[in-house]
Amino acid sequence: MNVPELIKIGKVENVRMLDRYSNKHSIGSLYLTVTHLVFMDSNGKKQIWVLNTHIASIEKQPLTTAGSPLHIKCKHFLTMTFIINKERDCHDIYLTLSKLSSPVRTEDLYCFSRSNKDISSKYDGWSSFDIQREFQRQGLPNAEWVLSYINSSYELCDTYPRYLYVPASCTNNILVGSAKFRSKGRLPVLTYIHSNKAAICRCSQPLSGFNARCFEDEQMLYHILRTNPNGKFMYVVDTRPRINAMANRAAGKGYENENFYDNIKFRFFGIENIHVMRASLSKLIELQRTTSMSAFLNGLENSGWLKHIRSILETGWFIAKAVSSGITVVVHCSDGWDRTAQVCSIAALLLDPFYRTIQGFQALIEKDWLAFGHKFSDRCGHVINDPKELAPIFTQFIDATYQLLRQYPYMFQFNEAFLLTLHDHVHSCKHGTFVGNNEKERQLLQLSEKTDSLWTDIAKNINEYINPVYACNRFKEECNKVLEPKLSPQNIELWRGLYFRFENGIHARETSEDFLLTLHDHTSSLEDHVKLLIKRVNTLSQLTESITAKKKSDEPKYKYDNKFSDDTISEKIIEKSMEEEDKAKTKALINQIETELKSVALDWKSSNKVKECLCSLRFDAFNKKNRCWSCGNVYCTRCMSEFRSSLPGHLSQRTVPTCISCSQSSPLSLT
Question: If DSSP codes are grouped into helix, strand and coil, which group holds residue 600?
Fold first, then answer.
C-alpha cells in the first residue's frame, strides 16, 4: 500500500474543534500525515496529536449552518468533533482517515515503518522474556511436570506456544487425544505452579455436546490431579454463565460432565461474552457526553461495566484462594483466549508478588496473553476485520489490575501511568509487541527483526513508571502474602484516569500520585548527586594530604650549605615542576566539581502552577508535563531531548530526562 497516496487532503484551515462543556471552541488548522492527525489552534498554544492507528471510528454527521461536523472516536477513549467549513473537505478527510486508521494488511501497520533499532542499546525488549526462563523461575521442570516438545512446530495447537508443560505421566497419545476433544485444539496445560504444588492449568471448552466423552481427555485431567500429591480433588472453573455454556452444547461443545471425570468439582462463573463486553464499553464511553448527574449515574449502572470488572476479580480470587489452599484449578471459557487469560492473570497477580513488579507484569502479559494466544489484532482491530471480533478484553484486565493497585498501592512496583501506557500501546501499533493473534503469527511476521519492542521503550523511561510508595523492597514478608481483592460495590471504582482522562476541567492540575513521583525522582537525583560529591571531597582531601606529606618529606632534617652545590638549581626546577603539577591536578578536580555541581538541579520548579511550556504550548490532557533533571524546569514533550543523558553530577551515570538545551550543553549524552 502506498500510504502517501491515500492522503487526499493534507491541511484544512479554519476548523472549529467543539468543547462540549463550554462555548470556548478552538479554531485552527487540521493536518493529515501518514502517521498522525494533528490539530493546531491559530496561536499555536494548543496542539493535539492523534495516531491514525488510535482512531476507532469516524462519523460524518448531518450538515449544519456552521459547516460539516466530523465526529471521531479513539481506542484510548478520546472523542473529538470538528466543524469543517466545506463539505468536500470533510468528505476527503473522512475517506483518508478511514483508510489510514484501518490498514488492509498487517505489514502496513505503523510499527513496520518506524523501526529504529539501536544496536548499541543495553536493553533489548525482544530478548527480555523467555517462557522457559519464567517456568524455571517457578521451579520447573520437576518430578510432576515436564517440558513437552509435541507442539514445537505448532502442529498440535497453532494458537498455543511451541513449548508446553504437561504432567510427567502423560503420554503423547493422551495429549493428542485431549487436543482433539478441545475447541481449537487447546488442551489443558500448565500456566502457573504454586510452591505448595497446586497448579493453574488452562484450556478451552470440551467438544462434549450433550453426552460425548473422550477417554484421553478424562485421563489428561486425572494426570493433572495426580501432579498435586496433597490434592484429593481439583476444581474445573468455567468462566461463562451457565446458560451460555449450556447453549454451546447444541453446537457440539459445552462443559465437562462430572460423572465422566474423577475427583473434580465444577464451578460456573458469570463473566459475559465479548459481544456483551463490547456493548458495555460503548455505553460507558457514551457517558462522556453526559452533563447531568442523574443521567450519568443511571448510565453507569446500565452499562454494567463495573459489574463486569468485579466478576473478573471475583473469579480470579476464587482461583487464587483455591491454589493457595493447595487445590489445583483447571480454567476455561469457550476458546480459552479471552476470559481464561483474564482470570488466570488476575489469580497469578494475587498469588505471586513477582508479577506485581514491572518486570514480572511484563512476563505475565508475555506468558498468559501473548504466548497463549489472546487475539490482540482481532480484539483491538489493528487491521480491517469483522467488527464482531472487537472486544475490550485486555482493557478489562488492565482495569482489574488498576482496582488492585488502588486497594493495595504499596504492593505494586508500577503506577497508574504504566498501566495507561500499556493500554495505549496495545492499540497504537507503534511497536510490534502486541501485533498478531498468537505466537506462530508473530514469528511468521518476523516482528522481533522488523519492529521495535514496547519493553525497550519502557526500560528507557523506567523512572516514569515507578510507584513511589512501593514497600516490598523493605517488607518482603508482608508482600509475599496472597492479596484478597475487596469486592464490595463501594470498592470497585470507575477509572476516571482511563475512560475520562481527556475531559478538560475534571482532573486536578497535579494528582497526589504525580506529586509523590516527582518527590521520589527529586530525592533520587539529590541522593545520587550527594554520593558523587562525597566521593569528590574525599578525593580532594586525599590530594591535599598527599601534597602536604610530600612537602614535609622534601624538607631536609639537617641544614647544609648548598650555596656551591651543582645540583641546587636542578632540584629547585624539579620541585617547582612538581608543585605546578599538583596545582594543575587540584585545579582540574575543582573545575570538574564545579561542572558537576552545575549539571544537577538542586531545586525543582513546582509543576502545580505551570500552565504552559516556555515555548508557549499549553499543558492539558494532550500535552503532558515533563521534568528536566538538569535545570529542574517543566517542559512539553517537544522541548525535551529525544534521547536521555547522563548527568556529570550523578555518581551512577544513569540516563535521565533532560530538555534539549541541557542535553546539548551536557558533555555526556547517550542515545
Answer: coil
Cell of 465: 513508571
Please give the Cα distance from 256 to 41 (Å, whole number).
61
Cα gap 634→521, rounded to integer Å: 14
CB-based contacts of 243, cutoff 8 Å, min separation 6: none
* Catalytic residue list contains 157: no
Match 469457550 to its residue by C-alpha cell: 334
Integer angstrom CA distances of residue 453 from 119, 134, 355, 460: 13, 19, 20, 12
141 upstream amide cis, omega within 30 of 0: yes
- Backbone φ, ψ for residue 237 (5° rounding): -105, 120
3-state secondary structure of 356: helix
Query: How confident is the chain (671 residues) per 10-residue block, as mean pLDDT?
Result: 72 90 84 93 88 95 92 95 94 92 92 67 82 95 96 97 97 97 97 97 94 95 95 95 92 92 94 97 93 93 98 98 98 97 98 96 98 97 94 98 96 96 96 96 95 94 91 78 95 95 67 83 92 88 78 59 57 63 81 88 87 86 87 91 89 91 72 39
Residue 22: Cβ-neighbour burial (10 angstroms; 0-12, 13-18, 19+): exposed
Q: What is the pLDDT of residue 85?
A: 93
Do 118 and 438 form a contact (C-beta atoms < 8 A)?
A: no
Q: Which residues pair with 238 in a beta bridge?
A: 268, 332
| CA atoms of 464 and 518, how far apart (whole Å) | 9
CA gap 10, 31 in Å, rounded: 6
The reported pTM is 0.88
Please give the grid coordinates belonging to residue 224: 493433572
Dist. CA 451–CA 431, nearest whole Å = 6
Helix runs in 408-438, H state only: 416-428
In this structure, are residues 284 and 303 in contact, taking their beta carbons and an 8 Å threshold? yes
- Helices (H), strands (E): how many in the chain? 23, 18
Residues 6+ apart with CB under 8 A from 149: 162, 163
What single-letter amino acid sits at 472?
C
Catalytic residue among 74, 333, 429, 628: 333
- Copy the grid coordinates of residue 381: 482491530
CA dist., res. 220 & res. 200, Å (int): 14
> What grid cell was written down for 468?
513511589
Q: Rounded to whole angstroms, how far apart are CA atoms 145 and 141?
A: 6
Rounded Cα distance between 414 and 434, Å, is 20
Among the listed residues 76, 20, 83, the one whose alpha carbon sits nearest the alpha carbon of residue 622:
76
Residue 298 cell numbers, joined: 443511571
* Contact yes or no for 161/186 (Cβ under 8 A): no
- Say what the pLDDT of residue 498 is: 95
Task: Please list, in sequence order, all residues whose beta carbon lies within 8 angstroms of the beta carbon of residue 540, skipping any fewer than 6 positions away.
Answer: 586, 589, 590, 593
Indicate the SS3 state at residue 267: strand
333 near 276, Cβ under 8 Å? no
Cα-Cα-Cα-Cα torsion 179, 180, 186, 188, nearest 10 degrees, comes to -40
